[in-house]
Amino acid sequence: MGLIIEAIVTGILTGGVYALMSSGLTLIFGVMDIINIAQGILVILGAYLSYVLQQQLHIDLFLGLLITMPVMFGFGVLIEFVFIRPLKRDRTMLSLLVMYGLALVIEGVLNLIFSADLVQLQGWYTTASFNVAGFYLSYIYVFGFLLAVVLLAGLYWLVYRTKFGFSLRASMQNRVAAELIGIDVERVSAITFGIGIALAAAGGMAFGATNAFDAASSYDLISRVLAIIIFGGMGSLSGALIASVGMLVVEDVTSVVWSPVWASTVFFILLVIILVVRPQGLLGQAEVRKQ
Amino acid sequence: MKILKMVGVLALLACAIIFPQVFTDPTVTTIGVFTLIFAAVATGWNILGGYSGYISLGHIAYFGIGAYAMAIFCLHWNIPGGYEPFSLVPLAAVIAAVVSIPLGWIALRVRRHTFIVITIAMFFIMQLLAYNLIWLTNGSTGLGLPLPVSWGGYFYNYPFYYAALILLVIATLVSWWIRNSKFGLGLLAIRDDEDRALGLGVKTGASKLAAFVIAAFFAGAAGAIYAYFVESIYPATIFDPNFDVAVVLMVFLGGLGTLPGPILGALILEPLQQYLNLQYGEAGYNLIILGGIFLLVMLLLPRGILPTLQDMWTKYRSMREQESPLQAEGGIVITALPGVGRSTAGRAESAPTAIAPNQNEPGEGINV
User: Fold this and answer.
1) Taking 90 as the threshold, does the pLDDT of residue B212 lie above it?
2) Which residue, A70, A73, A36, A14, is CA-closest to A203?
3) Contact A225/A207 with Cβ under 8 angstroms?
4) Choice among A154-158, B89-93, B280-284, B350-354 with the minimum mean pLDDT
5) What is the pLDDT of residue B96?
């Protein structure tokens, strides 16, 4: 029983980190109607950036985010401007392929620079742990979760309480109408893309501090993150949060009571069941006919 | 014109048959085998993605199922290496098709983006199962297939080459038949406007599922030949996300929804990919170059080679003859009307009925 409770707690804590990655993805999908398949490799890129800052300049991982997140934000805006904006027709599919091409390039470059050896981010908190009510909790899980809470709170504030957030939600609801009432949808898209990538970088740091990774880890990440956003309902921020925590709790509990090998499979089976019952996901909106 | 086309197709087929006799170098014929296998997958995929417009990014899952079915049958029935395993290819393809029925039923309940993402997720589920169902798939240790010991030297690739060629011919014939059948017309209607198609009496659910299963069947057959050719299969090399996207890119490069497009795309892309792997795989540049080509193709030729050429040809013709831009050719209507609306303007070929009502609809002038 104790083990199960411990698994649930770890699941919730690591779920926060996945929420960072998937909220960026679902936001980009909601506003721009594109699936950013490169999110996985961008998470890894963020983790490598933190790694370089820490190894070369000895900057603390969490402080380093003050550098990596703005850099990745700029990178995201640049990607949107160079690769997404020129696509005028068939955006959904073409953007998917373009982002995949970009992911391949980034993966190739990362492999060249860092080779395929697994690395893990280090800090005093990555190995230390403390005792709560009989359980040992690693500091990094708690810190990563707190980071996720702070950033996601900031994201909610941005989306629901600011003028930019109104523009963003308007663009999500109806792109054409938003444009007609004078919202610069292109600008909103670029900024949203930047925010999504910056969140991926933060998630990458927390991921890299809890897991050993290399460029190929991105495939595993993107499959999980995509599964999370389908589960939660594509385009739904709250759905992504619930699904992230749910997925990690299910995985951790399965590895304790059954076997770690089947952890992700059980989640995927749950996903299929949800889709049979509710094709649009937990909090997703049913698709309406587009003219 | 029709006779000319027939002669052209037969000449191409003859070239394909003679090719390995002329270029006997095993490296070249190996690339030929891979190209034909992926051309068959792409042709099958085009029936779903090109005709019905449901872009599946997980069809390599059925390729993998076909490959594993082949390996497992060979092991359990102790099939010796030689020509016998080829007789199992249809069986492996049927297994892949049967598995695709429930999965397709689930995935086809949603449309557009969600469908794409669900197919990706299903692909990863299959990969996970290949890792985890150790009693069946032997996990990450992989499975071996019987070795055709009697085939040696340059002859080794020939049976695989011709098996893949036969598969490609069958896939192309099926694709051609569907393109000209009532079933295919229904699929095209689904692509242009699914709700309207349903309203007009197209059995959308059954048609979509049939296209899905046919695509899975050819992917499974190709996977079976592939598995026998590469001799040993592992979850990571069979359920490879790069295959998945490569197939989609082949179709997009050649021309989505056209009959020869997928083959053309495969002829260009697969040898290029193999060459890059051979040439730059050691140094690790292959991914960067491949990704770069990917980006260039998508940004410069987003509609694919054939539709772009067709467009240029239509423009040239209409400029010379001052005719209407609508050119009928062999029953297929090629539209090059600018600004007809998103759903039709982006496609090279669409049923004429789909264009007419759209032209006068309010709101079509607003193009995002």
Assistant:
1) yes
2) A14
3) no
4) B350-354
5) 92
| Total number of residues shown for chain A | 291
Q: In chain B, what are the domain boundaries?
A: 25-302, 306-359
With 0-12 / 13-18 / 19 or more C-beta atoms within 10 angstroms meaning exposed / middle / buried, residue A38 is buried
Residue A112 contacts B where some CB pair is shorter than 8 Å:
yes
User: In this predicted model, what pLDDT tens digit does every residue of B292-339 receive, in sequence order?
Assistant: 887 887 777 777 788 888 888 888 888 887 655 555 444 444 444 444
What pLDDT, on a 0 to 100 scale, did the predictor assign at position B116?
85
Tell if the CB–CB gap between B109 and A100 is shorter than 8 Å: no
**Interface contact A29-B116, CB threshold 8 A:** no
- Shortest CA distance to B92 belongs to which of B72, B75, B122? B72
Instruction: Report yes or no: A105 at the B interface, CB cutoff 8 Å.
Output: yes
Which amino acid type is present at position B231?
Answer: E
Quickly count: other Cβ atoms within 10 Å of residue B173's Cβ.
11
Mean of the per-residue pLDDT values of chain A: 85
Of B120, B249, B287, the CB nearest to A226: B120
Compute the nearest-CA separation of A120 from chain B (Å). 22
Does the beta carbon of A100 lie under 8 angstroms from any beta carbon of chain B? yes
Interface test with chain B among A223, A251, A278, by most B beta carbons within 10 Å = A223
B120 touches chain A (CB under 8 A): yes
Kindly report which listed range (B133-137, B198-202, B216-220) carries the lowest average pLDDT score: B133-137
Can you read off the two tokens belonging to residue B296? 């260039």
Out of A86, A219, A281, whose CB is closest to B241? A219
Which residues of chain A have a CB within 8 Å of the CB of B366?
176, 180
Q: What is the separation of C-alpha A5 from the centre of its chain, rounded to a whole number of angstroms?
A: 25
**Which residue does chain B place closest to A289, by CA atoms?**
B195
The pLDDT value recorded for residue B253 is 84
Question: Do residues B112 and A287 make contact, with C-beta atoms less than 8 angstroms apart?
Answer: yes
Residues with Cβ within 8 Å of A157's Cβ and at least 6 positions away in sequence, in order, are A165
> Cβ–Cβ of B128/A96 closer than 8 Å?
no
Touching check for A52 and chain B: CB below 8 Å?
A: no
Q: Where does residue B2 rank: exposed (0-12), middle (13-18), buried (19+ CB within 10 A)?
A: exposed
Residues A73 and A56: their CA atoms lie apart, in Å, by: 22
Number of Cβ atoms within 10 Å of the Cβ of A275: 21
Whether A271 sits inside 8 A of B248 (CB atoms) is no
Residues B107-164: pLDDT tens digits?
888 877 778 888 888 888 888 888 888 888 887 788 888 877 777 777 778 888 899 9
d(CA B79, CA B71): 10
Alpha helices by DSSP H, listed for A80-138, are: 91-114, 124-127
- Asked if the Cβ–Cβ distance from B299 to A104 is below 8 Å, we say no
Q: Check the CA dihedral A278-A281-A283-A289 and report its sign.
A: negative
Could you report the per-residue pLDDT of A93-151, keeping only the tens digit for each? 788 888 888 888 898 888 888 877 888 888 777 777 777 777 778 888 888 889 888 98
Burial category of B177 from C-beta neighbours within 10 Å (exposed 0-12, middle 13-18, buried 19 and up): exposed
Domain boundaries along the sequence of chain A: 8-217
pLDDT tens readout for residues A84-101? 888 777 777 788 888 888
